[in-house]
Design brief:
Blueprint lengths: L1 E4 L8 H7 L3 H10 L1 E7 L2 E12 L2 E9 L8 H15 L4 E7 L3 H9 L3 E6 L2 H5 L5 E2 L2 E2 L3 E7 L1
Parallel strand pairs: 4-5
Antiparallel strand pairs: 1-2, 2-3, 3-4, 5-9, 6-9, 7-8
Coenzyme A binds next to helix 1, strand 4, helix 3 and helix 4.
Length: 150
């Protein structure tokens, strides 16, 4: 598997990006502001993430996703480690990520990669999404913010 930056002339893998965030509007905004990286096997894109420069020395990992058929094989972890390495190359001192209060697997993944919970953006999903979202039988209302000093 190869993880590489998406070329300017390539179409971003929207079907994967929308797995991580159902809002096309937010996904398009992230793509405009950030750098998109893809994981590829035999010319087929199976994973993605976007890295955003948010504040001086701080980057945010957004829109990480692995194709349904390829999940639970360690690719998500490889993408997170790749993002951490890229953040260092960009000169960042901190990398941040946010996920829903219901995203049990994602919370596990980020903490296994060293991230610590640093805050809760209460009602984030109520403010930013018009439709109710339920995941793992839990209503998605709060954004859990996690941070790693690098
Ligand atoms: N409890 C404990 N650990 C869990 C877990 C759970 N419920 N769910 C996942 N994990 C762990 C795995 O065991 C693994 O750790 P390990 O290597 O120590 O066993 C780790 O989390 C990640 O597994 P990995 O196989 O690398 O993840 P993945 O390739 O399936 O990708 C996502 C993870 C989140 C990118 C993928 O599930 C996905 O694309 N989901 C949809 C999009 C999404 O939600 N994106 C994130 C938005 S915040």
């Amino acid at each position: 598997m190869l993880i590489r930056k998406l070329n300017a002339e390539e179409q971003p893998p929207l079907h994967l990006l929308l797995l991580a965030d159902p809002s096309l509007c937010l996904v398009e905004a992230y793509l405009k502001r950030g750098q998109c990286f893809v994981a590829e096997v035999e010319n087929c894109i199976i994973g993605v993430y976007v890295l955003l420069q948010t504040r001086p020395e701080t980057v945010e990992l957004v829109n990480i996703a692995v194709d349904d058929s390829q999940q639970s094989k360690g690719i998500g972890k490889q993408l997170v480690y790749h993002a951490i390495q890229n953040a260092r190359l960009l000169g960042a001192k901190t990398i941040e990520v946010g996920t829903g209060n219901s995203s049990v697997g994602q919370l596990a993944l980020y903490q296994k990669c060293g991230f610590r919970i640093t805050g809760i953006d209460r009602d984030f999903f109520i403010r930013h999404y018009s439709e109710e979202i339920v995941e793992n039988g839990i209503k998605v209302v709060d954004m859990i913010r996690l941070t790693l000093d690098i």
